[in-house]
Design a protein that fits this description.
about 325 residues; TIM Barrel; ten-stranded mixed β-sheet; two-stranded antiparallel ribbon; 12 strands; globular
Length: about 325
Amino acid sequence: MNFSPGEKFITPRSGEQQQLDVAIEATHCELCPRRCGVNRQAGRLGFCKAGSQAQVFRYGAHPGEEPPISGTRGSGAVFFSRCTLRCLYCQNYPWSQEGEGETYSVEELAGIFRRLREEGCHNWNLISPTPWLAMIVPALAQAGRDGKRLPVVYNTSGFERVATIGVLRGIADVYLTDLRYSRRDTALAGSEEPAYVELARSALLEMWRQVGPLRCDEQGLAVSGVICRLLILPGHADEARENLEWLAATVGTGIALSVMAQYIPAYRAVQSKPWSRRISREEFQAVWRKVESLGFSQGWIQDYESLTNERLVGFNFRPRRK
């Protein structure tokens, strides 16, 4: 699919035609809920500071995702630069906040996807892709023209427009999405976005409507579906429990969960309480008990005892422009 100005799409929610060129056009960017409306082709920068060419910090076979994503040969992870949030605890801040990375044309980005496939990766894992969709979608189309398309994993913070997620129907196979907060004041303090809760929940429901529960092939590799990540935050474990209750009541306990205990104080969090500490064993156990009491049956909970590796995600990836 090629997103060209003026093209119309059928929205999966209503079945009615809706003009979405403003959502995918770099000349009037409204990809994320901030809807800055800037002309990126003319050098204007919005909140995320994304420009007119895709910016990538690292890419390569990533063994550290959930088992059906990483498999035995690794997920074909592409760490995109820039971000639509400003999380004070971001472990990836050198590229998400400070903009480290190199720019790639659509053709070069398609080359990255082909290289990851040739190296045996199980999927194309788009990490924080939203600002770059106008470049990613045609690059994926180019990379898959020979019929050797890999499952596309849309790896997101959850801060998304429902309209943008709607356009991804038939493009994204697996949604790996976060629910970070359940309260507006915490979302404001942690990510400078008080509307995160309602937006992330609405986006998750659209993802669920599109692809439903996680489905894996005979090798246990993800083919389609939603995986919801819940990162336990220090001082806010009760919000992880509240999100579990919301999921159980709204989507059901069949959704695949990834409960993460790996929070490490980073970036500006090291100077701000309660963000400046690791989570406690009591916080971890409280969330685990909630998962069990609600009856969730599919997913993963990180082992609290094994969380000793504080290496930042992505720093083992090599930059390549071959």
